[in-house]
Amino acid sequence: MWVFGYGSLIWKAGFHYDDRLVGFIKDYRRVFYQGSTDHRGTPEYPGRTVTLEPAQGALCWGAAYKISRKEDQQVALTYLEVREKQYDKKAYVDFFTDVNASSPAVTGVMLYIASPDKANVNYLGPASVEDIAKQIVNAKGPSGPNRDYLFNLEKQLLEMGCEDEHVTKIANEARKLISAAEDQNHQAPN
Ligand code: SIN
């Protein structure tokens, strides 16, 4: 069994695995369109986490984890079904490690998607870079500040050599908002 992570699963698997490969899947793009009320936000103030949107020709970089033993697979699945419970769909895709390869390194890699379906009550969808960044900067939940998720994701992707324009734009905007708020705090009279 293989699991593909494109968000927090990149830096925190949370289950036992036998191998980890950095690579990409095709025809999906990573987007901060899923509302998070259980990890990086609250029902009162949801955060935003990434999901996948179908996009012909796009590549989405991340990490694939191999889980070999039946017992480990069972434990990992039980864990992931709770952790990813706000992601309403599972898909099985081809995973590549080489941009020049025509055949995948691994087939049938499982991933979680938060879809725009009505049943996914936390789905937020597109918004301007400014609005997404503002929401992320201000949200925090049981797993920590939403901004840590954003900056960690940006860092992990850069370490992989992946420049994700959507993530970079939101991270740059978030940094602007944070430094503007800090400037204001410094200027505030005692
Ligand atoms: C993933 O990492 O693959 C799913 C999204 C998340 O948990 O951040």
Label this structure with key terms.
binds succinic acid, three-stranded antiparallel sheet, two-stranded antiparallel ribbon, globular, Hypothetical upf0131 protein ytfp, alpha+beta, 7 strands, 190 residues
Protein model, in words:
The chain has one domain (2-185): Hypothetical upf0131 protein ytfp (Roll), CATH 3.10.490. The longest helix is centred in the C-terminal third of the chain and has 23 residues, at 165-187. Helix 2 (129-138) crosses helix 4 (165-187) and helix 3 crosses helix 4. It has a three-stranded antiparallel sheet with strand order 1-3-2. The chain has helices at 70-83, 129-138, 146-159, 165-187, and strands at residues 2-5, 19-36, 47-66, 89-95, 106-113, 140-141, 144-145. The protein is globular, with a radius of gyration of 17 Å. It is built from four helices and seven strands, in the order βββαββαββαα. It is α+β, with helices and mostly antiparallel strands and 190 residues long. Succinic acid (SIN) binds at residues 5-9, 49-50, 84, 112.
CATH architecture: Roll
**In the CATH hierarchy, what is the superfamily?**
Gamma-glutamyl cyclotransferase-like
Rg calculated over all Cα atoms? 17 Å
Distinct small molecules: succinic acid
Choose one word for the global shape: globular
CATH C-level name: Alpha Beta
How many domains make up the 3D coordinates? 1
Q: How many distinct beta strands? A: 7
Family: Belongs to the gamma-glutamylcyclotransferase family.
GO cellular component, one term: cytoplasm
Cofactor: Mn(2+)
Subcellular location: Cytoplasm
Summarize the structure.
One of its GO terms (cellular component) is cytoplasm. This protein has 190 residues and is α+β, with helices and mostly antiparallel strands. 32% of the residues lie in helices and 32% in strands.
